[in-house]
Write the structure tokens for this entry.
Amino acid sequence: MTTFTVWKFDDPEGAQAAASNLKQAASEGLITVVDHAVVSWPVGQATPTTKQAHEGEWRGTGWGAFWGLLLGTLFFMPLIGAAAGAAIGALAKHTEAVGIDKTQLETIREQVTVGTSALFAVTQDGDIDRVGERFHGMRGKLIATNLTDAERSTLLETFGS
């Protein structure tokens, strides 16, 4: 099963450290990382920085477009009020097919702010218990996923968030 998750960290470096742990888990065969992106928003910066991983060269173009649309709409369009809602609504039409709804998009936009970071990950075939050991204690907060409620509960218990 392919899953989309967004983990928020309360410092600008947390998501990059989590991405390194995720890559290490993948190299050990605990999970397949389809692609991921890191958003870091240091204090004093007007907008966050983004880093797209492009895990597989053959997938890079498609995922690059996805990350560009998603992250651009959430963080780089100067939107306020109704315009932000309309942009997120339009984005949700593109992301619904992969289980990312408007509420999740709004939550991401509201919670990833100055002084924080976020790891956006698309993964497959994860051994949640073993991968969770890598993330335990990192104090990341799951803010968006397309997992079922039962899968989400297991993930949160395992990752110690």
The chain is about 45% helix and 20% strand. The first helix runs from residue 14 to 27.
